[in-house]
Design goal:
3-stranded antiparallel β-sheet; 48% helix
Length: 132
């Protein structure tokens, strides 16, 4: 009698496990069918986190550089970028915020390009009188 009761209990438990598994499968399928459509473009994310990342990167606020019109996704990145426009005594700024070489007509938009130009075109080389 106890064995029969145990067998019936096992059968009931197996049915419950099967039903639970089916319910879980249905819920998974429904979740996969959920769409995470961007309201501003045609992007569809795989999940809510993906959509949130897309929204922040693509449609988030931007911070524009007043000097060269580049834009950045955060104020911190813009501040870092602004250091590329800081004054350097080897050249001066024109009214258009372009860098003007003091030794020739060369102009560019940032300090790094001007430093490369000066290094290539205007760097005086030292000639050793002993080695000639």
């Amino acid at each position: 009698l106890q064995i029969e009761t145990l067998q019936k209990t096992i059968e009931v438990l197996e049915k419950n496990v099967t039903q639970c598994t089916e319910i879980i499968d249905i819920e998974k399928k429904q979740k996969q069918e959920e769409t995470f459509q961007c309201k501003e473009c045609n992007f569809i994310g795989k999940n809510e986190k993906g959509l949130n990342i897309h929204m922040k990167r693509t449609h988030g606020p931007s911070f524009n550089c007043d000097i060269c019109d580049k834009y950045f996704k955060s104020e911190r990145l813009l501040k870092i970028h602004n250091h590329t426009h800081s004054y350097n005594s080897r050249f001066q700024r024109t009214a258009l915020e372009e860098q003007l070489c003091k030794k020739c007509e060369f102009t560019c938009k940032n300090i790094e390009d001007m430093e490369v130009h000066i290094g290539k075109c205007h760097l005086e080389t030292f000639e050793c009188g002993l080695c000639d």
